[in-house]
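Practice problem: predict the structure.
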Amino acid sequence: PELYHGNSKGGISLNTLANGKAYFSNFKVTQINDLDFNIPIKKQINPGIIKNWELSKSFKMSELDLEKSPEAQKLSDLNWQKVDADDNGLVNVAKYHKRTTMEPECVYAKTIINSEEEKLTELQFGYSDYVAVFFNDQLMFSGNSAYRQRDPSFLGIIGYNDQVYLPLKEGDNEV
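Answer:
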């Protein structure tokens, strides 16, 4: 049920840790050409997951000031595209934007959080590579979670490992 790209041919790779040591036991590969996958059962969406997002067009990172919001940089014609997060709350940006150059690229993602009252709320999030979180045009967090950036064994795996506290105002708030 977790095959995000559907059924397709692929390969297998065995890798070692950074020190080159690995142990494999009773490893066996069998080729099967007539797999029949059952229709996946729809998972219950966790409460608090933000499903509705908008993605901008892609930019070369070198063209941007990553510490300023799009509004503060006076970026126009962002071509916002509405997208939905998957059931885990993740948005696979590569699904909507293919790389056009070897130079690092980025997109802006935004959503609206509507609050009935002024309050402080925690936003847990995960990301791959680099992120800057803006809240109502103010930089609240930036980080680098690329492969091996946090430590030599870090694989760049996405999880809800970071959080920021947002001072919600009554009404609409933009993240």
